[in-house]
Amino acid sequence: MFRTLLLAGLVLACISVPFVPAREEDKPKKDKENPAAKPIERLKQGFWKARHDKFLAQTKKGGIEVAFIGDSITEGWGGQKAIWTKEFGSFKPGNYGIGGDQTGHILWRLKEGKELEGLKLKAAVIMIGTNNIGGHSAEQIAGGIEAIVKEVRKQQPDAKILLLGVFPRAPFKKGEKAAAKDKLNKKVGEINAIISKLDDGKHVFYKDIGGKFLESDGGISADVMYDFLHLGKKGYQIWADAIKEDLEKLTK
User: Fold this and answer.
1) Is 72 a catalytic residue?
2) In terms of Cα–Cα distance, which of 59, 51, 27 is closest to 155?
3) Catalytic pick from 52, 105, 136, 230?
4) Which of 43, 68, 84, 222 is most buried, by CB atoms within 10 Å?
5) Any residues with CB less than 8 A from the CB of 226 and at least 6 apart, and which?
6) pLDDT at position 32, please?
7) Can 53 be counted among the known catalytic residues?
């Protein structure tokens, strides 16, 4: 009897079980598209369109070998022409910064706006992401920055990319002269930890100069960032000093 049952079990074990494909509802759902990596235009905003048109004109004129790509912090170089010319003039730089821009706006300007089309850049300095902090996760923002890096690589394959970590920031109240260390936005560090991995040592070079803007106690002084976000003259000099040597190496 036992032998009969054993043989029966072996027979059943050898019977192939037909493959049943997973039902559509059983398949894992794909992650939603990263909103920080989606091109977004702001042409209905007059100042933004004016800046974009200016960029197209300076690109068409040519002669730019290093593009600074970013938001209002990059745009702010326009108010520091003496430092800009002294420290970067020999690199034949072009400022492509617009106040309020998030990663998606930069992507639109590069992909649809064609702001770099026709240039033969030696290098690009990218610093973006702070305007995304209120509405996106660190992972989403890092994904948006990665998309920008990939687009610049695609359009300017011979250019080296100096990817800067998002600068430190803190809440601002009028009249304050400093922001304590514990007030610094923690998401900035999370973003930078992710995008630092984009450094490949060949085409993309990551550098976090955020610490150079901080005081010895780890806080932010209004002398460097007048509203604990945007740089003053002292802050722009710190920025220039921190990357000039890098640009010299990357543009050789």
Assistant:
1) yes
2) 59
3) 230
4) 68
5) 232
6) 65
7) no
d(CA 106, CA 103): 5
One of 90, 196, 227, 246 is an active-site residue; which one?
227
What are the residue boundaries of the structural domains of the chain, listed by start?
A: 41-170+186-213+241-250
CA–CA dist 153, 18 (Å, integer): 48
Tell me which of 26, 72, 199, 216 is the catalytic residue: 72
Taking only the tens place, the pLDDT of each residue in 15-40 is 343 433 444 333 333 446 999 999 99
Pairing outcome for strands 178-179 and 220-221: antiparallel
Q: Which residue has the higher pLDDT, 136 or 15?
A: 136
Assigned CATH topology for domain 41-170+186-213+241-250: Rossmann fold (3.40.50)
Q: Is the pTM of this model over 0.85?
A: yes
